[in-house]
């Protein structure tokens, strides 16, 4: 599986990593949050390096639906319910700042985008009730949403919200332009370099420990989806979620707006034209990472729904993205609360990183440069007691996954090698072992996640081993795909 964005990405020049370098700030993660933070800091006169373990945009940014929207499903009503109306208004204002900065950047850098109306719709009474709450929250937060039942969709809806003049784009074009500006400002972009640790030195600097060697910086920003360091405790207050998307060549009339359902399973729609072909992008069918069997069925379900309802051909691209749902209903952004002086993080964008990620970059860069924080303290990094209470249920599920994973992994004895495309956890020598067959090669690795020792589950849509505890993912041969784990799977 590979996204349309990554497959059609422009070439992004990078730099050769040289251990021992010293920078004002090192940013870990070359997605939208990391690169926009780096550019803002470089504009402020800093010498900045961005380090990416895989390739630019390889994780969430390269697998998003890339909607630059302030209408975000039912997020605002969730924020108001968890906090209050003023917090929801502050969240909307921060996202508006992120949206405005990103679109100004696109205009100045020649990155194309399309202005589209954003829609949230419901086909059930429960969904319509949720939309009524979202309508009230949006209007209280200053968003001019229209309530209607008339949409472009080919099926009847019970309710819908419309917010005019939002935007969509090709996210890798934006990353390419950000990388180009960073390097023009004497910044550096390193790919294929995995950071494994960040710690303070006796001189008051921060040492970034990476696979080919170390760097030193005055500050470090962790823009890795979920922070690779456990010091902030974020792994316990964000829930890793996996969702799927497919791109279908269009054969007739399709909706031109950006649509998202309020019902479950979620459904997301938008169009894009790439290399002369017009696609309808359909997304949804999300689930907690590592906790769904036969994930390929989720992709097939999207195919069936899209082809039943829209004039499209067979899917040309399938992909998946990982997002983190925060216990606080708003992202965690700022200096790490535990032993984290001069180490900053941004996480918990809840599937809306195109605006939240840039808003986080604005906040982080202002704090690091000593400027006034545009969010006026709205984004906070500290995990509060109410957040911990909110996650009691989620962490109970994590505990059950830990127990059931080990019990299941130790109950199955090794048998015949799995057929092509499948994986299984078996007991060998008293330990769970992950065995899979991909492209005719059978691989055996430890089935224990090196982060906090959960037993992995096979993802047959993406041929990966996924951790049901905190969302770490590994390729069939055991290499890290996504954190918080920073090392691959041990040999069996």
Structure write-up:
By secondary structure, this protein is α+β, with helices and mostly antiparallel strands. The protein has helices spanning 4-7, 32-43, 75-82, 85-109, 125-140, 171-184, 296-309, 353-369, 385-390, 392-411, and strands at residues 22-28, 48-52, 67-68, 113-122, 146-148, 159-169, 188-191, 195-200, 206-210, 213-222, 238-249, 258-261, 267-274, 277-288, 317-326, 332-336, 340-347, 423-428, 431-438, 441-446, 457-459, 464-466, 473-475, 480-482. The strands form 4 sheets. Strands 3, 4, 5, 6, 11, 12, 13, 14 and 15 form a 9-stranded mixed beta sheet that branches. Strands 1, 2, 7, 8, 9, 10, 16 and 17 form an 8-stranded mixed beta sheet that branches. Strands 21-22-23-24 form a 4-stranded antiparallel beta sheet, with no helix packed on it. β23 and β24 (480-482) form a beta hairpin. α2 runs parallel beside α8 (353-369), α3 (75-82) runs antiparallel to α4 (85-109) and α3 (75-82) crosses α5. The model has no long low-confidence stretch (mean pLDDT 92).
> Helical residue percent?
25-40%
Q: Which CATH architecture of the domain at 4-63 and 172-236 and 329-390 would you pick? A: 3-Layer(bba) Sandwich
Can you identify the CATH superfamily of the domain at 4-63 and 172-236 and 329-390? Answer: FAD/NAD(P)-binding domain
Shape: globular
Say what the CATH topology of the domain at 4-63 and 172-236 and 329-390 is.
Answer: FAD/NAD(P)-binding domain
């Amino acid at each position: 599986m590979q996204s349309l964005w990554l497959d059609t990405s422009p070439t992004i020049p990078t730099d050769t990593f040289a251990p021992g370098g010293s920078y004002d700030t090192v940013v870990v993660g070359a997605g939208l949050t990391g690169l926009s933070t780096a550019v803002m800091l470089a504009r402020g006169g800093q010498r900045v390096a961005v380090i990416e373990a895989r390739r630019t945009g390889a994780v969430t940014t390269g697998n998003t639906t890339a909607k630059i929207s302030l209408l975000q499903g039912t997020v605002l009503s969730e924020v108001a319910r968890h906090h209050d109306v003023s917090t929801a208004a502050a969240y909307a204002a921060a996202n508006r700042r992120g949206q405005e900065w990103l679109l100004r950047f696109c205009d100045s850098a020649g990155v194309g985008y399309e202005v589209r109306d954003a829609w949230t719709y419901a086909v059930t009474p429960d969904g319509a009730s949720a939309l009524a709450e979202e309508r009230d929250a949006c209007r209280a937060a200053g968003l001019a949403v229209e309530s209607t039942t008339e949409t472009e969709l080919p099926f009847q809806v019970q309710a819908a919200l419309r917010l005019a003049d939002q935007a969509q784009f090709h996210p890798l074009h934006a990353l390419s332009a950000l990388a180009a500006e960073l390097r023009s400002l004497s910044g550096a972009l390193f790919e294929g370099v995995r950071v494994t640790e960040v710690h303070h030195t006796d001189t008051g600097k921060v040492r970034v420990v990476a696979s080919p060697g170390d760097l030193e910086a005055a500050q470090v920003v962790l823009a890795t989806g979920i922070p690779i360091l456990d010091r902030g405790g974020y792994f316990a207050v964000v829930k890793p979620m996996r969702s799927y998307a497919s791109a279908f060549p269009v054969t007739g009339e399709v909706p031109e707006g950006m649509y998202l359902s309020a019902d479950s399973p979620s459904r997301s729609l938008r169009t894009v034209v790439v290399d002369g072909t017009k696609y309808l992008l359909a997304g949804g069918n999300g689930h907690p990472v590592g906790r769904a069997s036969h994930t390929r069925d989720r992709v097939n379900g999207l195919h069936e729904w899209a082809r039943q309802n829209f004039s499209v051909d067979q899917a040309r691209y399938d992909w998946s993205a990982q997002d983190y749902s925060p216990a606080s209903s708003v992202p965690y952004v700022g200096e790490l609360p535990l032993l984290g002086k001069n180490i900053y993080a941004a996480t918990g964008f809840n599937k809306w990183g195109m605006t939240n990620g840039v808003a986080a970059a604005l906040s982080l860069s202002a704090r690091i440069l000593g400027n006034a924080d545009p969010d006026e303290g709205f984004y906070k990094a500290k995990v509060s007691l109410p957040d911990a209470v909110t996650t009691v249920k989620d962490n109970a599920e994590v505990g059950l996954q830990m127990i059931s994973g080990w019990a299941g992994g130790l109950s199955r004895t090794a048998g015949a090698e799995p057929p092509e495309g499948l994986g299984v956890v078996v007991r060998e020598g008293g330990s769970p072992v992950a065995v899979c067959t991909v492209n005719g090669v059978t691989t055996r690795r430890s089935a224990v996640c090196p982060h906090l020792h959960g037993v992995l589950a096979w993802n047959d849509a993406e041929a990966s081993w996924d951790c049901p505890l905190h969302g770490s993912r590994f390729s069939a041969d055991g290499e890290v795909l996504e954190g918080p784990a920073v090392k691959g799977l041990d040999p069996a």
